[in-house]
């Protein structure tokens, strides 16, 4: 019998990324598939807090093994910002292009070292909690380049490359991304628990 992971996200792209690396003894069930359609308010001040808030929302309602993720871009010269504020860096509503333009302005004359970070919170049926992290380092380009991906991808040049994620084949991002690393860490943990 498959072990079910309840995923506290309404983002089908994230669910697809997790399903792509989940061994076949697991199945992923999303908020929408459970009939939850309200947006979970992310009131935390860190990626860890927000990932936990989302996983706890679901765990409180249905129990079981619940997971959630939260990601952000962390720029060294900006002391880790935009970080947990990544989606709304230039204000609300969230606007990828406005965020990138704002970031380029903030970085004038500063070092452009940065990383993407994902945190996955996992709450087991007995309420014990675990966190898994994935990081990819790189730097911020001086202009927006490429069409692929989302968010800050057209500005992020991963270490070892000279193109942005917006320009590189999406398969390169899928194989190396912060999100994939965090998912793999979660999967290794779950397999070790079986
Ligand atoms: P989320 O919590 O994973 O939805 O990410 C919050 C925000 O971080 C997104 O709206 C993007 O602005 C940014 N972000 C997270 N992951 C990525 C990525 O893989 N590429 C580009 N931007 C990202």
Give a description of the structure.
This protein is an alpha/beta fold. The protein has a single domain, classed as Maf protein, CATH 3.90.950. Helices cover 33% and strands 24% of the residues. The protein contains six helices and six strands. A six-stranded mixed sheet has the order 2-1-3-4-5-6. It is globular, with a radius of gyration of 17 Å. The model has no long low-confidence stretch (mean pLDDT 96). Bound molecules: inosinic acid. Inosinic acid (IMP) binds at residues 70-73, 86-87, 94, 99, 116, 149-153, 177.
pLDDT < 50 runs, ≥5 residues? none
Which strands sit side by side, in order, in the main sheet? 2-1-3-4-5-6
Q: How many H/I helical runs?
A: 6
CATH-level-2 architecture: Alpha-Beta Complex
Distance between the termini: 12 Å
CATH topology: Maf protein
Topology:
Layout: E1 3-7, H1 12-21, E2 26-30, H2 31-34, H3 47-62, E3 66-75, H4 96-106, E4 113-123, E5 129-140, E6 156-158, H5 170-176, H6 178-193
Parallel strand pairs: 1-2, 1-3
Antiparallel strand pairs: 3-4, 4-5, 5-6
The structure holds inosinic acid (IMP).
The site of inosinic acid (IMP) has 15 residues, from strand 3.
Brief description of this entry?
By secondary structure, this protein is α/β, with parallel strands linked by helices. 33% of the residues lie in helices and 24% in strands. The protein has helices at residues 12-21, 31-34, 47-62, 96-106, 170-176, 178-193; strands at residues 3-7, 26-30, 66-75, 113-123, 129-140, 156-158.
């Amino acid at each position: 019998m498959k072990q079910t992971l309840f995923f506290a996200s309404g983002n089908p792209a994230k669910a697809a990324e997790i399903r792509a690396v989940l061994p076949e003894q697991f199945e992923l069930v999303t908020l929408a598939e459970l009939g939850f359609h309200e947006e979970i308010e992310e009131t935390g001040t860190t990626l860890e807090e927000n990932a936990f808030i989302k996983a706890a929302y679901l765990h409180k309602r249905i129990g079981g093994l619940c997971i959630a993720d939260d990601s952000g871009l962390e720029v060294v010269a900006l002391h880790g910002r935009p970080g947990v504020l990544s989606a709304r860096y230039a204000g609300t509503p969230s606007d990828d292009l406005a965020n990138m333009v704002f970031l380029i302005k903030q970085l004038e004359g500063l070092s452009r070292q940065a990383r993407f970070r994902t945190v996955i919170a996992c709450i087991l049926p007995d309420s014990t909690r675990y966190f898994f992290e994935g990081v990819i380092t790189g730097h911020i380009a001086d202009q927006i380049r490429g069409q692929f991906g989302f968010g800050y991808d057209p500005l992020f040049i991963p270490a070892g490359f000279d193109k942005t994620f917006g320009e590189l084949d999406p398969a390169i991002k899928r194989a190396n991304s912060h999100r994939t690393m965090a998912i793999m860490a979660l999967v290794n943990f779950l397999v070790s628990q079986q």
